[in-house]
User: Which sequence fits this backbone?
């Protein structure tokens, strides 16, 4: 399908007028985040020339060593968003607690959550990384961590930016999924897909196979059947991909289908999974569902989980409907 090559600004103005009726503050939020992603892309693309590789010498709330670009990306998103009057507060993988908009700026009606740089272990090896963001409405009153604890179904917008061979921004405001590619010559986002759909079937799975011995039985059963190929119960051969950056693996699924899994495993049995619900799983689940896919934690729809902590983790299975339904079904059989 030939996509009309319109700019992000034109798309947002049309959405403001049209069916989606996106409010002015949400339009401003999206434009500000998209501009911040351009600035992050510039820093990412400098690599060693910009002294942005390596570690920052600090740890985040997850106890993970922060890379310099983690810190830079986080600061770019905060500085870009704090003055516009569209936000009540921000929450980030890189910050222990939420950040209320400083009193010197007007407070808006939205809450922005983000993983400023997902896939940090890929930074120094020049493999795709990205920014993931989620938007909720502030329900009024003082802004606290609890203001953010809304289920994924409450999201009004979600998106990600992949810093790869192309710099692409994928976005939903609840009326399907669109993609923009950064035109570096003009410095503008140009629409390159106007209605992303995930194929219901796939022959491609994404999981970190090195964790196989730690998985629960439904996941092991599903992957064993994929590995058995056309002579096994699935009757077809499968391919495997694992970029170790959720944003890149999900983008592949948005582009050609597939199933992505980061399930619970017994290495840390008290943790429901590795990925974070609020600023990784929820925004990606919103995008996947809007593109016709499915996203569960094995037992329920990820977007229906009621969060209890800002940085809580979750088991993730998402992508092509018919594949996610199979592995979810295996979980239901043993619960
Ligand atoms: P980092 O940002 O620490 O590299 O983690 C990325 C991530 O949260 C997610 O984007 C990947 O899918 C997953 O972790 C990769 O985890 P493994 O390194 O255990 O495969």
Assistant:
């Amino acid at each position: 399908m030939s996509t009309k090559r319109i700019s992000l600004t034109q798309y947002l103005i049309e959405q403001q007028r049209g069916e989606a009726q996106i409010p002015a503050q949400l339009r401003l939020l999206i434009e500000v985040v998209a501009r911040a992603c351009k600035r992050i892309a510039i820093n990412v693309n400098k690599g060693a020339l910009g002294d942005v590789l390596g570690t920052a010498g600090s740890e985040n709330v997850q106890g993970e060593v922060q890379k310099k670009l983690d810190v830079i990306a986080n600061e770019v998103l905060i500085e870009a968003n704090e003055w516009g009057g569209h936000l009540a507060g921000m929450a980030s993988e890189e910050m222990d607690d939420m950040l209320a908009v400083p009193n010197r700026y007007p407070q808006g009606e939205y809450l922005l959550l983000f993983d400023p740089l997902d896939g940090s272990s890929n930074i120094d090896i020049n493999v795709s990384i990205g920014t993931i963001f989620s938007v909720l409405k502030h329900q009024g009153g003082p802004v606290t961590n609890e203001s953010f604890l809304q289920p994924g179904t409450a999201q009004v917008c979600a998106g990600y930016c992949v810093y790869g061979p192309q710099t692409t921004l994928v976005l939903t405001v609840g009326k399907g999924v669109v993609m923009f590619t950064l035109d570096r010559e003009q410095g503008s986002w140009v629409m390159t897909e106007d209605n992303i759909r995930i194929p219901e079937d796939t022959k491609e799975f994404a999981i970190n196979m090195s964790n196989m011995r730690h998985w629960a039985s439904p996941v092991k059963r599903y992957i064993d059947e994929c590995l058995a190929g056309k002579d096994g119960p699935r009757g077809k051969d499968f391919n495997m991909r694992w970029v170790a950056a959720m944003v890149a693996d999900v983008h592949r699924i948005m582009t050609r289908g597939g199933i992505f899994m980061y399930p619970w495993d017994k290495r840390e049995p008290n943790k429901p999974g590795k990925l974070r619900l609020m600023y990784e799983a929820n925004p990606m689940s919103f995008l996947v569902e809007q593109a016709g896919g499915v996203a569960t934690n094995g037992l329920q729809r990820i977007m229906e989980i009621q969060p209890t902590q800002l940085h809580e983790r979750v088991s993730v299975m998402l992508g092509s409907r018919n594949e996610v339904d199979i592995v979810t079904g295996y979980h239901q059989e043993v619960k």
User: Anything to note?
Assistant: The mean pLDDT is 96. The chain has two domains: 8-193, 204-334. DSSP finds seven helices and 17 strands in the chain.
